[in-house]
Amino acid sequence: MASARSAAVPAGTERAFDHVLTGVSGAGLTPLEVLRRLDAGPRGLVEDEAQRRLERYGENAVLPRRPAAWAWRLLGTLRDPFTAVLLGLGVISAVATSWSTACVIAVLVAVSCVLRSAGEYRADRSAASLRDLVATTATVQRRAAEESAPLVREIPVEELVPGDVVRLGPGDMVPADVRLLRADGLTVHQAALTGESAPVSKRVPDAPAELARPLFDQPHLCFAGSSVTAGTATAVVTATGPDTHFASAHRGLAGRRTGAFDRSVNGISWTLIRFMLLTAPLVLLANAVLRGRGLETLPFAVAVAVGLTPEMLPVIVTTALARGAAELARRVGVIVKRLPALHDLGAVDVLCVDKTGTLTRDQLAVGCYLDAEGRTDPAVLHWAAVNSLWTIQLADVPAPDALDEAILAAAETEGDAAADGHDWLASAPARREPALSAVRGPAVARATFTDVNGVDVIPFDPVRRLVTAVVARPDRHGVHTLVVKGAVEDVLDRCAIDEETRARVLRLAERRAADGLRLLAVALADRPARTRPYTRADERGLTLLGIVGLRDELAATADDALAALARRGVAVKVLTGDHPGTAARVCAELGLAPGEIVTGDRIDGLDDARLAQLAAGTAVFARCTPAHKARVVRALRRGGHTVGFLGDGVNDVPAMHAADVALCPRDAVDVTREAADVVLADKDLTVIDAAVAAGRRSTGNIATYLRIAVSSNVGNVISMLAAGVLLPFLPMLPAQVLVQNLCFDVSQLAFAYDRPDAADSRRPAVLRPYAFSRYITVFGLVNAGADLATFAVLAVFTSGQTAFHSGWFTENLITQALVMLLLRTAAGPVPSALRWATGSLAAIGLLLPLSPLGAALGLGALPLAYYPCLLVVLAAYGAALAVCRRSRLASGGA
Ligand SMILES: Nc1ncnc2c1ncn2[C@@H]1O[C@H](COP(=O)(O)OP(=O)(O)OP(=O)(O)O)[C@@H](O)[C@H]1O
Ligand SMILES: [Mg+2]
Q1: Pairing relationship of beta strands 177-189 and 165-168 according to DSSP bridges
Q2: pLDDT tens figures, 732-742
Q3: Is the pLDDT confidence value at 724 over 70?
Q4: Is 354 an annotated catalytic residue?
Q5: Which domains, from first to last, does the chain contain?
Q6: CA–CA separation, 886 vs 880, rounded Å?
């Protein structure tokens, strides 16, 4: 595969370590040789050298972090379907040599593109600054100077350079392409590169023969874009940023999942475009059949079609979402990393959460330690502590784990209390291990044991649900002791016990779990000492010691948050890896009726359709592996729900990817934060309610725009068709139609600043194309009625097309302003943006026909007698709107 990599590097590019890269993956170099070729060492780069390399090779980012240039942004907006349709119509007008229409369409396209790129630029900038707040870091080992001791510290991922020595632990993103120097039980998830969903194990290979495998299967290489699911490692960076395999595979691809937002906005856009494409032939046909007009009506038909296009939709959407996101960040510290996720959040009707650290505080305290008979036995706690201690000690990156922390703290207290009774816990002096004391603080460091020595670790993973520490005991020469702790069922599966004992221990666990305790079983096995590493295959034939029970406090605001979500019509489901009994108790305490609890094994036995059925009616899923969680989420989505997932662990990542919108607390591990669309300021769950409400408000504003824009456009088309047939001339000149349309569009931007009715955010808000249809029909007809009344007035008071055009133009703009004020959903005071917009519309409507610009457009002054009559028509129109709204004749919408 060496050739594959070298082939990917363009010839003649002087990238830093091409020679090394090819060598690294192919030639079976030893770690030391790799380091030498990278001009690096196992102790890490010197800071100055790292700085030089950063300047030379650039930031370690796949895409440049600078916002795109203006020209690119403008070009990008041309790709949107509305703009494309407008441009198409412009070309048709040009071909028909209707130059004025073509020019006005060009102006329209330009205005909408400029507005749109300005809106997107602002939105991108604020989203980027929000994202920076939750950016991921890499653990790097560097030295201040050549002779200084190496220092392990966190740096922004972008500052990594080739030759850097990095540490990897569970929950880390692999920050660049790296070559492993040392690895311990490392498994990584490389789905982003290979599409393979199961994690693969990585290690420093024993035999060079293994290096002949395909690139991504090579055991000693890890790649940017993958993440660590279990185990730890130390590695040297071989390629960064655009040189990584991830970058070459994803060049130009956004690679995001499509959520509810993309589906609904795309759906609406295409419905409208289809409708619009139908209008032009209809206008042509009506004029041809009833008036015998020919192709000379083409520019008019085109203008009517353009008038129907809500080309400001993308601008409104971006502005409304960006405003919502900025407000959330300011008010409750919730960070929306991807704007459409805010809409999806408002649409969520099922929120799945994990238990520990989400519903509970993840501040555990040991509640009991029992032998297999249910009697208190300090030896159980002791061995659990030995396991915790060495799991932490032997990891390259000590990963904080509340469970292990609690066990060590309890063991220390127990040791102090029984200092003379038990000799299993040495009191002092403690052997302070730098890695541990750095992470844990003094309390844990004191609990170090002097009588056992860690040899190896088989790290925890959420599928196996257990962790093994291998230790050597001073009193047993030539023997290694495997200390295993983990989920009761999974440890029992690996113990040499009879069915009866197994059943008894399971019952004991059941009883304790019903008290809400988290349970771990502890087991031992002696093996002849060896130097070969221990593997999962060694975890069998164990002797059961007993179980440790840990208590976890409920999160302070969890019950309030769940109640608030229920009021908003969001069903909460718990997906946990824990014991069903523990999960049931926690849910009951939170007032969440657990009902029947479904376990992971049961999920395995169901096909997708049956699972979808079951999932809809189940509130708690226990003993779930990461894959189970993801399957449940997918099943719920298939059942028509919009699903959010809130989790904080590596084991939640697959489910987060499967959900419409993924949430995590700010202190979650890197992969989880990377997978999340929405990052919560802290573990206070009540902010989710605020976020959901903000999402629904943004969606509400977009829906208001759509309802009003589309219904008045529909009204206009009906009037145009009617007038076209009734009049001996065109009811409006193409340029007039387009100018009027431009005024409508720009004024409607104000809806992004409205605050919709609170009642609107009481249920999940989804934009559905067909939900608007009744509303649009009713108000479209009322609008057309006002136009026809105006035609009658004009017929009485005026003659000639200029006066007719002017009269209708004035009426149209003022009715539009009325509609905007009367049909907005909010009951509160009119925001100033909307006051300005409607005021300006009315002013333009009244004054433009009198101005020189009006004259250029073919408009002119109107007889004074027209105005009082117009007032009567407007009053009647306003009254009709109010009646329709009140009678809920036209309910529907978002
Ligand atoms: N450090 C550990 N050592 C041993 N066993 C553990 C450890 N952490 C978790 N387990 C076991 O693995 C099971 C699943 O843990 P995991 O962290 O995967 O659960 P989860 O899905 O995150 O659940 P939760 O909803 O409680 O967060 C736990 O119930 C426990 O029995
Ligand atoms: Mg968890």
Answers
A1: unpaired
A2: 887 888 888 88
A3: yes
A4: yes
A5: 2-65+134-250 (2.70.150.10), 277-326+699-886 (1.20.1110.10), 335-359+555-680 (3.40.50.1000), 367-550 (3.40.1110.10)
A6: 10
